[in-house]
Every structure is written in C-alpha cells, then in structure tokens.
Design goal:
This protein is globular. It has an eleven-stranded mixed beta barrel. A hairpin with a 6-residue loop joins strand 10 and strand 11. It contains one helix and eleven strands. It is mainly β and 228 residues long. It is 7% helix and 68% strand.
C-alpha cells in the first residue's frame, strides 16, 4: 500500500486551503468534538457526542464567530461480521449565537460496511438524513468512502498513531429547493492514548453547491473519544 502517503495527503489539503483563501466564497471553521462510545452487547452500542463550530476566517479576514452547538446520539446495530445499521438524532442550537439563525433537528439512517486488506481498513457508508427546521425540511443523501491504518507497525497499540482519510458526496433536496451537491475531503491523524481513549486532529475541505455558485469551506477538526 505504498501509494497511500498520509503526510502528503494532509499537506495537500493544507496547501489547497491556503490557495483557496485567495478565492471568493471561502470560509474556515474550527470544530472541536467530545465523543463517548458505549457497547451494551456484541450487537448493540451507543455513541454520544457534543461539538461546537466557530468561524475563524471569512471574507478575506480573520474573525472569530461562534455559530452552533451540536448534541448527537447514534444507536448502532451490528448485522454481520463487518456491517452495521444505525439510527441517529442530532439537535443543533444556532439561535443561541445568531438571531437570524435557525435551530435544527436531524434524523439519520445509516448503513456501514468495513473490510480489510493487510493493515488498511476500508469503509463504505451510506446515510439518509432529514434536516428539520421551522422553515423547511431538507432530505440529504450521503455516500462516504474511508480508509484508516496504523502508522507504526501492522496493528495499533497504545501510544501509537494512526491515519484516517475519506471522501464524501452529498445531495440536498427539498420542496421548492433546487438540488444542492457537495463534495468533501478529509485527512485526520490520531493517537491511541489508552485502550479506551483516542485523540484526533485533522482538516476537512468542502466544495459546496459546485453545480451552481461554488462555495469553499475548510474545517480544522479535533476530537477526544472515550470508549466506556
């Protein structure tokens, strides 16, 4: 798997975001996340997370502006050795930060399958979402291809690092809404701090509404994940 070079992938995304800062319709966000995973049985597990998103760069200038606070929950049902079905709920609070913003309630149905080759794991994920606000309901369809691998040896041990990369295609549709297409690319590096704790940092680039007026988004990501 020598064609997979995580440092080069992350460097490319940083270079791309630097180039795009000179373009119109470019915004950079930071999004820290705290997640808790809890397995009730071999076939059923929970995931809870809280996240905050803030603007740090917009309209060719640096500025900090808190945008939203998310609380989400997923129930995961294992249906095979490497497959699962999930049902998710998300509450997005935006009105707390901006009066003109609207809170959102989201329902997510998900199918995920993972397979391995040598030390690399590959995953296909399909999501269908209903994004419900006081103004309208948007139906979003998502497909993501991802890979992850340890960066030291064949297996991930405590104290070692790993890489996760993915690309995702999204389609948003709704009543009286023109279809909105989006493409995302992400690269993340993480460390297994203990058998139940992971720390992760990464960069995500989003190409929004690329069939109409293109908007460029970059997210600086961080997450701390606990398995209870």
């Amino acid at each position: 798997m020598s064609f997979i070079n995580p440092p080069k992938i992350l460097f490319f995304l940083f270079f791309l975001s630097s180039f795009l800062r000179a373009q119109d319709n470019f915004t950079t966000f930071i999004e820290p996340r705290l997640a808790f995973n809890y397995k009730l049985s071999k076939l059923y597990s929970h995931n809870w997370s809280v996240a905050n998103r803030s603007t740090i760069y917009e309209s060719s200038e640096l500025k900090f502006n808190a945008l939203q606070f998310d609380i989400s929950h997923f129930s995961n049902f294992r249906i095979g050795a490497s497959q699962n079905l999930s049902l998710g709920l998300l509450f997005r609070y935006s009105e707390l930060f901006e009066r003109e913003s609207i809170n959102e309630f989201r329902i997510t149905e998900q199918y995920n399958i993972i397979f391995s080759s040598n030390k690399v794991r590959y995953g296909h994920r399909v999501r269908v979402e209903q994004r419900i606000t006081s103004l309208l309901t948007i139906h979003r369809f998502r497909y993501r291809f991802a890979l992850d691998m340890p960066l030291e040896g064949q297996n991930l041990d405590v104290g070692e690092s790993y890489f996760i990369g993915n690309t995702e295609t999204l389609l948003n549709v709704g009543k009286d809404l023109k279809p909105i297409y989006e493409q995302r690319f992400a690269a993340n590096f993480g460390w297994l701090l203990s058998s139940k704790t992971k720390l992760q940092f990464g960069l995500e680039y989003r190409l929004l509404n690329f069939t109409e007026t293109i908007q460029h988004r970059t997210l600086l990501l961080s997450s701390l994940n606990f398995s209870l």
